[in-house]
Amino acid sequence: MPETLASPGRLPLTDLSDDEAMFRDQVRQFAEEKVRPLVSKMDAEAKMPRELIDACFELGIMGIEIPDAHSGAGATFFMSILAVEELARVDASLAVLVDVQNTLVNNALLRWGTEDQKARYFPRLASRWVGAYALSEAGSGSDAFALSCRALDKGDHYELTGRKLWITSAAEAELFVVMATLDPGRGYKGITSFLVERSFPGFTVGKREDKLGIRASSTCELVLEGCRVPRENVLGEAGKGYKIAIETLNEGRIGIGAQMVGLAQGAFEHGLRYAQERQQFGKPIAEFQAVQFQLAELATEIEAARLLTYNAARRREAGDPFVKEAAMAKLFASRAAEHVTSKVIEVYGGYGFTREYPVEKYFRDQKVGQIYEGTTNMQLLVIAKQLLGKM
Ligand SMILES: Cc1cc2nc3c(=O)[nH]c(=O)nc-3n(C[C@H](O)[C@H](O)[C@H](O)COP(=O)(O)OP(=O)(O)OC[C@H]3O[C@@H](n4cnc5c(N)ncnc54)[C@H](O)[C@@H]3O)c2cc1C
Predict the structure, then answer these.
(1) Full pLDDT tens readout for the chain, 391 residues
(2) Is any ligand 1 atom within 6 A of the Cβ of residue 176?
(3) What is the dihedral of CA 57, 61, 62, 65, to 10 degrees?
(4) CA 60, 123, 167 angle in degrees (round to 5)?
(5) How many Å lie between the centroid of ligand 1 and the Cα of residue 6?
(6) How many angstroms separate the alpha carbon of residue 141 from the centre of ligand 1?
(7) Which atom of ligand 1 is nearest to the CA of 380?
(8) Rg of the chain, C-alpha, whole Å
(9) The model's pTM
(10) Most ligand 1 atoms within 8 A of CB, residue of 99, 149, 166, 367 to mutate
(11) What's the rounded Cα separation, in Å, for the pair 138 and 74?
(12) d(Cα 311, Cα 43) in Å, to the nearest integer?
């Protein structure tokens, strides 16, 4: 074997270490045995059973990167990506709950939390507390730093007032990373990040959205009315919340790429199986070359999306620049998921268009991949800025 292929760090991107492969298999088995039987009910009722969330804690996938010393799994960012991919293969709603927990909330605390904050929150985030990440508001989505949620400095505490919109996992979460501004006149430089507990006075979770897809994932408004947040719950430095938001979202985006890869893979596997079972003109439709070619095209798109996603994740883990690669991964994987799920419905014919078969749900679930953690246009903007050296 040529030396370059044998040397570590130059392995094919989809080669997993023994630990990674074992972890991936565990999550896959969990998704098949514990999640798949519940998926259609969860979608119909728009509800995530608490027992399922508890099972995720027991499996150790809610604190993947949390160090052992704080009761976490002490594993890697890449493993978070594998977990999200495997869960999304079966259910994109559970996948995004696990994704936000690991790639946004735990990640933000890992990178910017004080020792005291880590000691207070990591053991809970690893064992029973769901986390949420609150940046968006009704008037500020893509233009996230135009946010208007206000933080007033009251000495030993801050008072937060405003509303947040679209907050994933808000119905279940106990800890919220909330971005608010200390001074709207200072633009992005006023933005500060706070660790807000659900039980803090002045904090309530508002209306839940009734959505097209990922229906079991809660998406709610947050209402902050003079919400009292202790000074020691500022995450990172006051006025540096914009940096936390930009950097966590750069990383979180790789998680959404993984969610879209897993979702596309899950839908594809249904299509592949169905094409070999469904008979027309006296033989399985998979024997028609037109259908074979369609399946081959879809498998190629999924492989390309997976390679982009793994590459971004491996680069991030290696400490290499990854911002452009992460945006490309999310951009491409979300488009691939849209195309794959749409074509798999066609493979199923009329049956694919009904709720009795699983593929229409994949089609509904994928759409959000082009919206959250930066719309498709925002990914293009990030990529273009990187190409033109403007970032
Ligand atoms: C299911 C769901 C879950 C979510 N979870 C969270 C969460 O947990 N936390 C959180 O903070 N947010 C969350 N969001 C919010 C999400 O990040 C925003 O919806 C997203 O950033 C887009 O913002 P917007 O909806 O206000 O759309 P807008 O920003 O109003 O965009 C509308 C359209 O205009 C385009 N556009 C806007 N500006 C430009 C520009 N400069 N150039 C080109 N095109 C542009 C956009 O690409 C888009 O097509 C969630 C959203 C959804 C739907």
Answers:
(1) 444 444 455 689 999 999 999 999 999 999 999 999 999 999 999 999 999 999 999 999 999 999 999 999 999 999 999 999 999 999 999 999 999 999 999 999 999 999 999 999 999 999 999 999 999 999 999 999 999 999 999 999 999 999 999 999 999 999 999 999 999 999 999 999 999 999 999 999 999 999 999 999 999 999 999 999 999 999 999 999 999 999 999 999 999 999 999 999 999 999 999 999 999 999 999 999 999 999 999 999 999 999 999 999 999 999 999 999 999 999 999 999 999 999 999 999 999 999 999 999 999 999 999 999 999 999 999 999 999 997 6
(2) no
(3) 140
(4) 80
(5) 43
(6) 4
(7) 43
(8) 21
(9) 0.97
(10) 166
(11) 37
(12) 32
Atom 29 of ligand 1: nearest residue by CA position:
142
- Tokens 């040529």 -> residue: 2
Q: How far is CA 370 from CA 51, 163, 264, in A?
A: 30, 24, 14
d(CA 243, CA 308): 25
Active site residues: 373
CA of 166 to the centre of ligand 1 (A): 9
Residue 88 and residue 94: Cα distance in Å, rounded? 7
Q: Whose CA is nearest to atom 47 of ligand 1?
A: 377
